[in-house]
C-alpha cells in the first residue's frame, strides 16, 4: 500500500486534520506531550526563531506516522530537531507495521525536500525508533552518532508495594527529614494541602491558575525574569493551556494542581499530569520567603505518599534529573542524543560551526543587555 506523507508548517494547516490526528495519537501515545494539543499549542507559542515542520504519513487516508520537527537555518546550513523540548521526551509516533518504511520516508523528506544538512534529535533511550533510525540511515549514507547524556536524563519512581515498604526502601534519614519539615511548618502556623482538579470546569481552572501566578510572583524566578526581561514562564503557559485542551477531549488525561497553604496563603504548588498509568511532575514553584521550609519538597512528598496509598498509577516521572530529586530512591532513565549527517568529516565540521554560531549569538545577546 502506498504511503502518502504531507508537510504542515502552521497550526492552522494542521488543525484541518485535528480529528484524525487525535484518534491516531490517543491510540498510539503513552506520552501525553505527544498529543495534538501540546503540538498545536507549541507551534502557536514558540518557533519565532525556527520553522515548525510536521510530517504526517497516511495509508488510505488513515494516519500511520507523525514527525513533529523544527527547522533552524543559519549562515551555513539548515538543521532539523524535534519541535518539543527534550524534557518531555519527544519522539516519532509511528504504527508498528509501518515503522521502518515511514522512518525511511521521513529521512528522505528531511534531507532531500527540506535540504537539511544535519539531523539532531533527543530521544528516550527506550524508543522503538532508535534501532530503525540507525538501520535506515545507511540508505542515505549517513553517519549515525548516538550519545547517552546524563544531563538530559529523567528520574522515575515505580509505584510498587505499600507506602510502608516504599519508606523502608529510602535512606535511613528519609523519614526524619520529612518529619522535621512538617514540624518546621507547624511552628510557622496552620497549613493544609489543597488539590484542584476537574479543570474542565472553567471556574476551577481559573482558581488554580490564579493561585499558581501568585506563587510565581513570590518565587526566586520572578527576580530572574525581571533581570532577563522575561515577563512570563512560557513553558508553564504552554503546558497549562495544552493540558486544559487535552482534559476536555481525552478522558484518559487528568491534570491536577497540588497547593501547600500556610496561614491561608498558597506558598507552593506542583502541576501534575496523569496519563495512562504515569504521573508527570511538570511545573513547580514556591515562595522564596519560605525557602527554609522546603515547601516544594514537602508538596512533592505529599503527592508521592498519596500515590502509594491510592495505587492508581504505576510510575512517577520527574521529567528531568535535578539534584534534589535524589531525595527519593529514584531510577534514572537516560535520553539519547542522535546526530545524523553525511560523513564523519562533515559531522565534525557542522558541530564546530554550530558551536561557533552559538558563541556568536551569545556575544550579540550580551551586547544587547
User: How can the largest sheet be summarized?
Assistant: 13 strands, mixed
Distance between the termini: 56 Å
Considering the protein shown, what is the CATH homologous superfamily of the largest domain?
Gcn5-related N-acetyltransferase (GNAT)
Radius of gyration: 22 Å
How many distinct folded domains? 2
Indicate the percent of residues in helices: 40-55%
CATH class of the largest domain: Alpha Beta
CATH architecture designation of the largest domain: 3-Layer(aba) Sandwich
Instruction: Name the structural class.
Output: alpha+beta
Instruction: Summarize model confidence as the mean pLDDT.
Output: 89
**What is the helix tally?**
12
What's the number of extended β-strand segments?
A: 13
- Structural shape: globular
In percent terms, what proportion of residues is strand? 25-35%
**Uncertain stretches of 5 or more adjacent residues:** 364-369
Order of helices and strands: EHHHEEEEHEHEHHEHHHEEEHEEH
Question: What is the fold's blueprint, element by element?
Answer:
Elements: E1 3-8, H1 11-14, H2 18-28, H3 36-45, E2 51-59, E3 62-73, E4 78-82, E5 93-94, H4 99-113, E6 118-124, H5 129-137, E7 143-158, H6 163-169, H7 174-188, E8 191-196, H8 202-218, H9 220-228, H10 234-249, E9 253-262, E10 265-275, E11 278-286, H11 295-310, E12 315-317, E13 331-341, H12 344-368
Parallel strand pairs: 4-6, 11-12
Antiparallel strand pairs: 1-2, 2-3, 3-4, 3-5, 6-13, 7-12, 7-13, 8-9, 9-10, 10-11
Please give a handful of descriptors for the protein shown.
369 residues, alpha+beta, Aminopeptidase, 2 domains, 13 strands, 29% strand
